[in-house]
TrEMBL record:
The lineage of its organism: Eukaryota, Viridiplantae, Streptophyta, Embryophyta, Tracheophyta. It comes from Phaseolus vulgaris (Kidney bean). This is RING-type domain-containing protein. InterPro entries: Kinase-like_dom_sf (IPR011009), WD40/YVTN_repeat-like_dom_sf (IPR015943), WD40_PAC1 (IPR020472), WD40_repeat_dom_sf (IPR036322), WD40_rpt (IPR001680), WDR86-like (IPR044715), Znf-RING_euk (IPR027370), Znf_RING (IPR001841). One of its GO terms (molecular function) is catalytic activity, acting on a protein. The keyword Zinc applies. Pfam families: WD40 (PF00400), zf-RING_UBOX (PF13445).
Amino acid sequence: MELPECPVCLQSFDDRDAIPRVLSCGHSVCEACLAELPQRYPNTIRCPACTQLVKYPSQQGPSSLPKNIDLLRLSLQNSPSPSKHSHRHNQRSTINSGYDHSSFWSPEFYDAWKNWILPHDAVLTEDHCLGQLSSSKGRVYIGVNRCVSLAPIVCLSPGNDSKFRFSYVAWVIKCLERMSEVAREELARILEASVRQSRVCRAFGLWSEGVEAPLYMVCERQSGNLLDKFGELGNGFVGGNEGGLELDGGGIFSFLMIGRGVCEAVLSLHLEGLVAGCLGLSCFSFDELGGICVDLNEVLGMGRQLHAVSGKHEKEAMCKDCLENEIFASPEVLYELLHKRRSAPDSGHLRYPIGYGSDVWSLARVLLWLLIGNELPRNSLEMIEENGGDSTASYVCWVEKVSSFLEDKLGSEYLSLRKTLCKCLDVNPGNRPDVVDVRKSIQDTLVKPQFEFLGNLEVTKNKDSAGHCLVLGELCLLPKEWSDEPREHELREKEIGGQPNFVQDGKDKSDEDFAAGLSGGLTELKDLRGHLDCVSGLAVGGGYLFSSSFDKTVRVWSLQDLSHLHTFRGHENKVMALVYVDEEEPLCISGDSGGGIFIWGIASPLRQDPLRKWNEKKDWRFSGIHSLAVFKNHSLYTGSGDRTIKAWSLKDETLICTMTGHRSVVSTLAVCDEVLYSGSWDGTVRLWSLNDHCPLTVLGEDTLPEMKSILAVTVDRHLLVAAHENGCIKVWRNDVFMNSKTLHNGAIFAMSMQGKCLYTGGWDKGVNIQELSGDEFELDVIAYGSIPYSSVATAILYSQGKLYVGYADKSIKVYQ
């Protein structure tokens, strides 16, 4: 038999070190733990078992609380040696104060990518070619003004008839979620490589022009690349008298210096396990110090060009495109591009593997262009197999021509460099030298006494590793536009006008489905019309939807088909608030601006007259009932214009007590864990114990003047959110202030919370959806999206997988 134990330290109760003391909520905690629990407010403590705020005699201490005699007797009778128990407070367990609610996205996924998301206003584009396969240009303003290039990563199709509009951050996360896991891993490699390697153009992060626009990778764009600087050198540095520089006139020296930097840039990719797959002069740029960096956005752009041509299944078209655009891809890479899509799964075998050696071939072609230019023989692509033929012999002939041409241009003085470059063009990647060897050959060609300050580059790299080829990767395979098809968990049946089956294995899945389903859009299930004035309140219960209005009525709608069933009439003033009571006899209670309280029976058939009604006592300050709340189906609480909260008995309509403390209208009430939360126009939230109606604490007394007038509060056990007239919300966790954020341009009139999801609506005619994310030390309010409309949102209720919104234009929208 397991002995009863303290919920804090997990020590079994005894009569010495772990005496059980009973709190007013009914839970027992050992005396030693009670003495050490933090007290944020005088004479109040939060029960570690149920997290309720309960009265605690701070001056007398825990010994003044009653012992739990039954638990103590049970522990002593079954403990083999109670005297030997030692109380170890260093082994306390942490009570989980949160729920395992569904989220719009995986917290781990969001944390992994959030730091790469650039602000929406961080990039200013310079051209109008956004969305194309090639990289675009722009400027980024993140602390400094820098030129950038923009490479499209994901292009989702525009939304359909969904009423939901993603926030900027949510749209970026959605784009990342739609990518395959392989593509995301590839993108992460590129981003991390740009941070670790100085020879890789820096990637600032991910950016989108707006919701439903493509997602771009934003990379730093240097002042000029090799193509811009030397593109007009048709004969290279030493290619001839007309275009190139003479051999003894500094041409070979310039080539060696630039070639050394190009080698280091390619090596930086290999050190990160990346293989470019194709290279060109435009892939290399000069940084501010004159060093050469590789621009991966340009590499991706070249790769997409090759994929576009290879899709035509024409070798000649690909060869021509590569030659015309100075795209240098090794023979084995070109072979793969031509045969990958059309070969059978078992016949796509490559003669030679693709790896770091493939970049060595492309590197040699870049160096040869810089050295000789367009005079180099151009039949290097004939080795690509077609129809089972083998043109290796022709390729070997071409390499020999290149060697002979280099000998004519360079002479015997640069024999080692010539041999190295020709060896880089070997048909077998395994016979090609490493990038480090190419760099060493260039370094040794320089006059050593003059260039000793350059030092040697000592690099160790696993040559057995093939690396990840970008040109053959997922990012280069991305089509221009991805279809925004729902993922598997979003493919569920929707019954328009009916009640979906949200119960699975005995567990309600509607909350999880709604949060997850928002990534696929939001459908307007029904537009309920019938009220003659602004909708002021919503409630769900007993299979009905109840709506109150300034037209002095309460309407009843069926949750099955959302049809109108009945209208409660009798109020002589505007109906301001509405609650549902789930008693043995379910009730609907409404309060109006004249102080009238009406109790309506909802047993079938629905009656026209109220079961009971009474009025609050009025005085000159009174402006009616503004809010309602119910506790344990026997007490009704009304927040009034006379700054008081009144407790009423639902059995005989008698006034139990009046709670005072607020300095203005009590605009909103909420009940959670035997605590009443009241928000007021005075800008504060007061907490009241529902056991004896005594005040517990006051939140928001330090509120700035412009943040006064709380119009709505919502509570979900440990989280409390208050909405202000200026469009700002304040969030507390366990009565500790966590965050404040502006969500709307104007007053927030309505609010609802379910788990981590917060729904707000107000003066700016939109419903915003946020996620409350964080831990006990930090909490963030992350905008997920919005539901735009043409009228002010005045009432919001989330229930059973549906979102109900009442508007000032007399309508009620039901979203699913």
